[in-house]
Design brief:
- The chain has 250 residues and is mainly alpha-helical.
- α5 crosses α6.
- The radius of gyration is 22 Å and the shape is elongated.
- Helices cover 84% and strands 0% of the residues.
């Protein structure tokens, strides 16, 4: 199946929305509020050097560090909760509670604690991405049916065998589902952190352009952030297909 056949309807809708945006922005004729897509593309090209060589690497580094920490600690905590009921009862409510607090309200506190260093932005990214990875992986580890476990036990399998040969493969699809959500949220987390306090990054650049009433300049880094999120999602989806070749999909 070709890419066009698979995503043809989505591509058509995207083009239609861009045309409507272009026409609507030109009729409004207030570029500092709503620039046209053409103006945004021209602005990206005009500012390509600082955007792609200075601010994009700064944001991408935050995303990579935040995601790596979320995967490391999220998967570790999910495994720990799945094998220890006390740990589950202790940490699971805290994980849920962490999502009830608006991250935008916590971001200034992290800037106060960590200053304008990269770590204030990394913490925001971790808080946003940690939840889907941890909860999905934990649900996957618990999804293994008792019948399969009993079958392996009758065949002489140990707890270690059951974990690595049954629970880990069974939870892989859950992990990748959480990771696909996390990679898109990581872009939001990095941008929020940079908006609150940063000296470089696409979020910081967008805020700086806003103070100058440069509508196209505000939209330009947002478009790049969106492209980064799509790029990361595609990478994770490709990795999922290669890793889970045994899974039957339509």
């Amino acid at each position: 199946m070709s890419i066009f056949k698979k995503y043809g309807a989505s591509s058509t809708l995207t083009i239609l929305l861009l045309v409507v945006w272009e026409i609507g922005a030109r009729l409004l004729n207030m570029g500092f509020i709503l620039p046209t897509p053409t103006d945004v593309v021209l602005k990206i090209w005009e500012l390509r050097v600082p955007l792609f060589l200075e601010h994009l690497p700064a944001t991408f580094l935050i995303i990579l560090i935040g995601l790596s920490l979320s995967i490391l600690f999220g998967v570790g905590l999910a495994v720990w909760m799945s094998i220890n009921k006390t740990v589950e009862k202790t940490f699971y409510p805290l994980i849920i509670s962490s999502q009830t607090i608006p991250i935008i309200a916590l971001a200034p506190i992290f800037v106060l604690w960590f200053g304008y260093t990269i770590w204030s932005k990394v913490v925001v990214t971790v808080l946003i991405t940690f939840f889907p990875i941890t909860v999905n992986t934990y649900d996957g580890l618990r999804a293994t049916t008792k019948e399969y476990k009993d079958l392996l036990r009758t065949m002489g399998a140990t707890k270690k065998d059951i974990f690595f040969k049954l629970q880990v493969p069974g939870s892989a699809s859950y992990f990748f589902s959480g990771l696909k959500v996390a990679v898109t949220l990581s872009v939001i987390g990095a941008a929020i952190g940079e908006w609150i306090g940063a000296q470089a990054g696409l979020g910081y650049f967008s805020r700086r352009m806003m103070t100058q009433f440069d509508g196209a300049g505000v939209f330009a880094p947002i478009i790049i952030l969106s492209a980064v999120g799509i790029f990361l999602f595609v990478i994770v989806s490709s990795l999922e297909k290669k890793t889970l070749k045994w899974r039957k999909t339509e």
